[in-house]
Design goal:
Oligomer: single chain
Largest sheet: 2 strands, antiparallel
Shape: globular
Number of helices: 25
Length: 596
């Protein structure tokens, strides 16, 4: 199946899709993103040595505009999955995508029951797998964690949990760009997110804080207490970002995510004095070992340890909290994280970003408030009476249930402003799952080594954000687009421009037409499409259901029918060409770019 000529593929890509794709995406563009392709990693580090300092972060993002996605549902809604279209849309929100048999199996079920089943599944863990491979003689240096994550996104059973891992990795950003040959550290961090995906946000915050990957990325690993004699000050990176990006944001928020105004002006959540006070908290953390500067074997991918003799002993003030002098390091961290967690901004700030990663790029204030209220309450009661969550503030199971079972995405209304823009990773993995790709071994696919380039890849690589600000900003409004004209936030458009569109098309060309790597690896199954390929309209309608939930316009489908019909059918090889062409045109359509 690998023999399809690239000339044929490239001709199809160039002649049939380029103009319509650029027009359909409404321009996009880089804006203020600073999210270009990631450069080459630095030189490998010897164990125990600090990584090279990361490049200076871009300036803080501007305050997000008030969310404007519009209407609150007024009619009845239900969470019964009655049709294939409803099943396709549900699986598009909750998994990395589904093949037709998975869509069929969901029809006639309750979303609540499916959701509970996902919450109950054991977590996929990554570190133990990689260490087992290493003990068997396999080299896991470089970025081997990427391979196991790609494999699990495509073929793993715990799909919702893995989607949550991917979502949390875009909130608590750690980039492997500065972690060459630190695979176990990143794998440990991935385990933290996977294990705690449906636990409590406060626990995630703590485990992230005590992870070596975060400590090295934001430079508080072996962060020493201040020394007035030399003028040494504690590192402030994590103190700033844990507030600015991970938990409360830079301006005071209402419960619905809109800015609080005092005399018509926004109010900042913290000052530089708060950063300086909080920075003293994150001193004294290092790898487990005989002392602050020596580590035990394997401690680089275990929980960090506090060395109190290197922890700042003085009083610490931040966000209205006061930690008395000579409070132990771990106790200080607990007080600090409790203070941040209990901040009234945490619920709307976190809830809105989780909504963006699953269901709506520009959620309405009403939607955000409903979810934030559940975050605070720690429990959610579904339509069928099922209760999700423990009742403790920050319960992520309850929060996710509220996001996915919200009336605004389960009612009969279909507003233009609804939906989530599919980011490049979701587009690619959805294709792999929709066409039941077999013989999956991402380590053999060179194109998956680093997909971050906007000129040769997807423009996005899991666990490799170009900065701590993630791939895109949650408040980004794309200039020159219909969404921008309506004032809608569209974070995913920040990685879209004409170059990235062409790069995505070329990337998908290689995989769809089965020319990406070894002939026995990543083999898509087009047999359902080949079976109906004689009928171009039936093939197009089937892919419209499978990939877009029947959201393609009549004109787009007519274009696909015309292109497919131009390929005469004399053999199954011709039917396969038709199937691949139809799949390619659907996946590069504007309808596929939006998850409804």
């Amino acid at each position: 199946m690998k023999q399809t000529s690239r000339k044929y593929v490239q001709t199809v890509a160039a002649s049939l899709v380029l103009v319509s794709m650029i027009a359909g995406c409404g321009g996009g563009g880089g804006g203020d993103g600073g999210t270009g392709s990631v450069g080459n990693p630095g030189s490998p580090n010897t164990p125990g040595s600090p990584p090279p300092p990361p490049p200076p972060p871009p300036p803080p993002p501007a305050s997000p505009p008030p969310p404007t996605t519009g209407q609150t549902p007024t009619g009845p809604y239900d969470t019964r999955i009655d049709t294939e279209v409803e099943a396709q849309k549900w699986l598009g929100r909750t998994t990395f995508g589904a093949d037709y048999s998975s869509i069929q199996s969901l029809v006639g079920t309750d979303a609540e029951e499916w959701l509970q089943g996902e919450f109950d599944k054991p977590a996929s863990l990554y570190l133990s797998d990689l260490l087992a491979r290493q003990s068997n003689g396999e080299n896991i240096d470089g970025y081997k964690h990427r391979d196991v994550l790609w494999d699990n996104m495509i073929a793993g059973n715990d799909q919702l949990r893995t989607r949550m891992l991917f979502a949390l990795s875009q909130l608590f950003v750690v980039s492997d760009d500065t972690a060459f040959n630190a695979t176990p550290q990143i794998a440990y961090f991935m385990d933290v997110l996977s294990k705690n995906a449906f636990g409590n946000f406060r626990d995630v915050l703590e485990e992230v804080t005590y992870s070596s990957a975060m400590a090295r990325y934001l430079t508080y690993w072996r962060n020493e207490k201040g020394d007035p004699a030399t003028g040494r000050m504690p590192d402030e990176n994590y103190a700033r970002e844990v507030m600015q990006l991970f938990t409360i944001g830079v301006i005071e928020l209402n419960q619905d995510g809109t800015p609080k105004l005092v005399n018509g002006k926004e109010v900042e959540t913290f000052t530089n004095d708060d950063v300086e006070g909080l920075a003293k908290v994150f001193t004294g953390l290092s790898w487990a070992g005989p002392n602050f500067y020596q580590e035990d074997a394997g401690s680089q991918y275990k929980r960090l340890v506090m060395f109190d003799y290197m922890h700042a002993p003085e009083e610490k003030r931040f966000l209205g909290a006061v930690i008395p002098p000579n409070t132990g390091g771990d106790a200080s961290v607990k007080i600090a994280l409790d203070t941040i967690f209990e901040h009234p901004n945490t619920a709307p700030f976190v809830s809105r970003q989780l909504i963006q990663r699953f269901t709506a790029s520009s959620p309405s204030p009403e939607y955000v408030k409903r979810v934030a209220d559940v975050f605070d309450a720690g429990t959610f009661t579904a339509l069928n009476g099922r209760v999700f969550g423990t009742g403790e503030r920050g319960d992520l199971e309850a929060t996710m249930a509220a996001i996915l079972l919200d009336p605004s995405i389960n009612d009969a209304n279909d507003y233009e402003s609804e939906g989530k823009i599919r980011e490049p990773v979701l587009k690619f993995v959805n294709w792999a799952r929709a066409f039941d790709v077999r013989n999956i071994d991402s380590s053999k696919e060179g194109m998956l080594d680093n997909t971050s380039s906007q000129s040769t890849g997807l423009g996005q690589q899991p666990m490799r954000s170009p900065s701590v600000f993630n791939f895109y900003r949650p408040g980004y409004v794309a200039p020159g687009t219909e969404t921008g004209a309506q004032g809608l936030t569209a974070p995913e458009f920040q990685v879209v421009n004409q170059g990235s569109i062409v790069s995505f098309m070329n990337f998908m060309t290689a995989f769809i037409f089965d020319t990406s790597g070894p002939a026995d690896n990543f083999i898509p199954d087009y047999s359902p499409e080949i079976a109906i390929a004689d009928d171009a309209q039936a093939l197009t309608d089937y892919l419209d259901l499978l990939l877009t939930g029947k959201t393609m316009t009549d004109q787009a489908k007519a274009d696909i029918v015309a292109a497919v019909s131009s390929i005469p059918v004399a053999s199954d090889a011709d039917r396969e060409k038709r199937a691949k062409l139809a799949a390619f045109m659907t996946i590069t359509s504007s309808a596929y770019a939006i998850q409804r």
